[in-house]
Amino acid sequence: MRKHLVIVESPAKAKTIERYLGKDYEVKSSFGHIRDLPKKGLNIDTAKNFAPTYEISQDKKKVVAELKKAAGKSADVWLATDEDREGEAIAWHLAQALGLNPKNTKRIVFHEITKPAIERAIANPRTIDIHLVDAQQARRVLDRLVGYELSPVLWKKVRAGLSAGRVQSVAVRLIVEREREIRDFKPQSSFKVTAIFEAGKETLPAELTQRLSDKAAAKDFLQACTQETFTVSDAAKKPGVRSPGAPFTTSSLQQEAFRKLGFSVKQTMSLAQRLYEEGNITYMRTDSTNISTLALEAATKYIVTNFGKEYHEQRQYKTKAAGAQEAHEAIRPTHFDKTKAGADGQQERLYQLIWQRAVASQMADARIDRTEVTISLAKRPETFVARGEVLIFDGFFRVYGGGKDDVILPEVAKGQKLKLREMLATQTFSRALPRYSEAGLVKKLEELGIGRPSTFAPTISTIQSRGYIEKTDLEGIGRAIQTWVLKNNKITEEERTETTGADKNKLLPTPLADITTDFLVKYFGDILDYDFTAHVEEDFDAIADGKREWPDMIKDFYKNFHPLVKKSDSATRQETSQARLLGKDPSSKKPIYARLGRYGPMLQRGETTDESVKPDFAPLPQGATLDNVTLAQALEMFKLPRSVGKTSDGQEIVADIGRFGPYIKVDKTFVSIKPLDPFKITETDARKLYNQKLDKEAKKHIQTFNSGLQVLNGPYGPYVTDGKTNAKIPKETDPTKLNEAQAKKLLAEAPAKKPFRPRRKK
After folding, report:
1. Fold topology of 250-360
2. At the fourth CATH level, which superfamily is domain 189-243+366-429?
3. Whole-prediction pTM value?
4. With CB atoms 3.0 to 4.6 Å apart as the test, which of 65, 197, 283, 747 could cross-link to 204 if both were Cys?
């Protein structure tokens, strides 16, 4: 019998730790949380200090039983879950479920899964930190209260099945408000002037230090320059340095992995989790930039050995995040001399990024020589400036960053005359703030103090899966750019086109996000207030530090929140759906609205309050939105469904637009006609598409028996079906010769369909 039982939350982590412990230790996994609030019902007693009711989840009962059995056979139990609040809560729930005494149960924590770290943890056990547990409980209880009371309000007032959350709703609001800023932004035009001067046999590119207001001013300036003399009024060289960034926190890793590797936030955290569990990196949920003394020594040894003493500069970075407490170190490799790690290509790329950033953080500055040349005009006050930069010593660029290409300027002296070769005045436009990418949203949430390292990835995943936000690419539109060119004392005008508004992998709000945000801001303004949400995080930090009792914090929140739920009852469905009256149908005299429906934006003709006559509905025209669709466009859409003609056997063909795009319908058969226009599709094209559909269906069907059983062709080969159960036909069996008895036997022997189970969340 083994003397010691060690419990962790991850099987991969258990496997790694077991390598470092002796035969007296048995390491088992809880597979994440084993207890939580039941899915149905509030399960928080608001009358009794907000006491939560926990239960062992159904899929964890077997795990708990096995852990109890193992604990009963062991001399003691060591709880080795992650060192953040979530990990502390898992340890506490394990103690409760297994009947362990939290006061004497050994709790060990480590920031990295290495033999020295495990041995140090074993030598220095502690008890469960109830303050950290309380902070996690406070977050769980508060989020349940918000979700349980706010989500039903959205079901009644906006759309059934919606969810709301304290952090996710604020994240959606950020994206909605940014999109509105972009939509309302009016770009301002100005002209940038650049010039190429001749300095002996070399050229000197420079830029005018100010922008010119309009086309006329640009032309006037270039005209004046035909008679100008250009002189070097100053030529200065200044040494400069570039310093490395701090080693990664959770937030900065997510941002840099997105920027350099194109990884989503969720993908980055999944890969980092596996690297941590295999003992390759330190804990990946942290807002600290600190590096331990031992790690600093290891980094020093590696840098001096591989690059030389001049490349080393020991640094300790100050953590900027407010309330940083989740961990005690930045994300770094566990072994600095291990330059490559990971089970696959993606893990390897992320590990390399972490390794490079951590090593670079302990390296010397890159040294640069900067040159700035000022060029004055004899008759005008404007000046041109040319800037150059030469890398003198690469420093940390040796492993991270690389630096930009040198920009070397020709040697010029103060007072030297320059000859103008060419001057361009190019039209430019001011730009709105950029749309949020996943990484940009993480940065903004961190700046506002909303959420903590463990919440960023699930928040971004949730707002996308709930249909509030879409990650998409935007193609952009063309825009004419005016340019004046001065060359050989002649001014010519040129015009070119640039693409504006193109974006890649950006987060865009859906109409549902707009409507939900407006409703929540109006009736739950405090909950969606950025400062308020940040203050809640500070309250959690105070609880974790033992400075505040969690029931008191929840009580203060709930006494303000609950009345808002009652107040929201006064909102009407018409108000929350943002129905916009476009006008009246000239024929029926019925009002036409643009509004959000169950499946998205739509048009409505008639009133929902008139029970005797149901309203008509139609989709929005392509490219139109609830804000800009016109009555004329709406009237055109209500001309659908449109009769296109008839099939060869006399059945009517109808064209329309549905949830999944334009289609034609013949009897009960639907055929997609993308990318054809339902208003313009001809009878010939419709017949062709319909016949192709019939041919495809005919090829799919092999035979039908009297009992109703069918033999069909599927994407993975022929199979038998009774409409509920499918059974694959063996390769050696000819499906055209299969009889009914054989078909029934295949169905009877078909393996039972596995029930759908949502992916378990850690």
Report:
1. Topoisomerase I; domain 4 (1.10.290)
2. Topoisomerase I, domain 3 (2.70.20.10)
3. 0.80
4. 197
